[in-house]
What we know:
The protein contains 2 helices and no strands. The chain is mostly helical. The protein has a domain at 1-8 and 35-64. The chain is elongated, with a radius of gyration of 15 Å.
Amino acid sequence: MRSKGFTLVEILIVMLIITVVISLTVLSVTSTGRDGQLDEESRRIEGLVGLLHERALWRAAISV
Length: 64
């Protein structure tokens, strides 16, 4: 019987993909007025990843 939820490996792979995408985005943006907008979006993405991480941990704790 397989439990519901994500494995640690799946979560780490998703976090790695997000990190690569963010890194590529940061490297592709030149130092123009868009830097402030990029900082804001990266903070939003970082918050979303943190929220998803907490939710995964919470779901794992409930299913134990």
